[in-house]
Structure formats: C-alpha cells, structure tokens
Amino acid sequence: MVGDNRTVRVSVEGTPAVLDDGVEPRVQPPSGRRLPSVLRTLVIPQGYTLSIAGSFALAMQRYGQPSPLTAYAFVAGAAAAFIGLVLISWRTIRNEAVEPPAAVLALCNGVPLTVLPITGALAHLVPYALLGFLTAGFSAVATYVAILALFWSVIARWVPS
Fold it and tell me: Is the pLDDT of residue 129 over 50?
C-alpha cells in the first residue's frame, strides 16, 4: 500500500512471516532442518577464510605489522595462486556449483589445520617482508584449494555416503 509504513519480514523459508508494525517480533530459533544446508553451503568459504586469516596472522608474526604495500603483496600472491589454479584446470572447469561429497565426513573441513603449518614454514624461509607476504598469500590459497580437492577426492572414492 502506498503510504503504509509497515513492511513484511520474510522468514528463513521465504514465506511472509510477520507484518512489521513497530512491535518487535519474537525471535524464533532457526529450523533444525536448515542447519545441514547451511553447513554444506559454508564448508568451502569457512575453511578458506580460516586459511587466509591464519596465514596473514602468521606472516604478521614473522614480519611485523604490514605496510599497505606488503598487505597488497599478500592479496596479489593469493590472487596469483587462484588464477594459476584456474588456468591449470581450465579444460575441466564446468559452470556448476561445487558440492562436497555426500559423506558427512566431507563437512569436517580441517584443511586449514594443514595449511597453516605449510604457510608458516614457507614464511620463515623468506627473509624479506614484501616477498614473504606475497609467498604467504600464494601458499594459503594454493595449499587450501589443493588439499581440499585431495581430501574430497579421497572421501568420494573411499568413504560411503
């Protein structure tokens, strides 16, 4: 309605839930049946975020507070690794969303726990901050993507769903 100050709030399921007439609605817990879908949706970005943040923290521990240039080097290294992996797998990339294997074990994404020691070790081998941040960014992305792909390949082949 024109002139009506009320708005419709939409529930998690996508159906109109309440009219907002200034009265605060009761907060309801998320539907238990939605939790598995949310976990499947977040499994890749959650592990990626932990890998990137942890690798950046390890680079900071090694080289100190980054300058704008060294922070940019970290991002450049991460972007270079991602672009490199795309180019390597160019012929097999499809226009479809990646789904983890059906086995519940595939959602137990502990890959960042393997990324950080590798990235940290590489950072300690590089004596210069600019090159070190570049290496840390590159290593974080390349290692995360490669180990996650390997982890899921093993699960898809050997773990029943």
Answer: yes
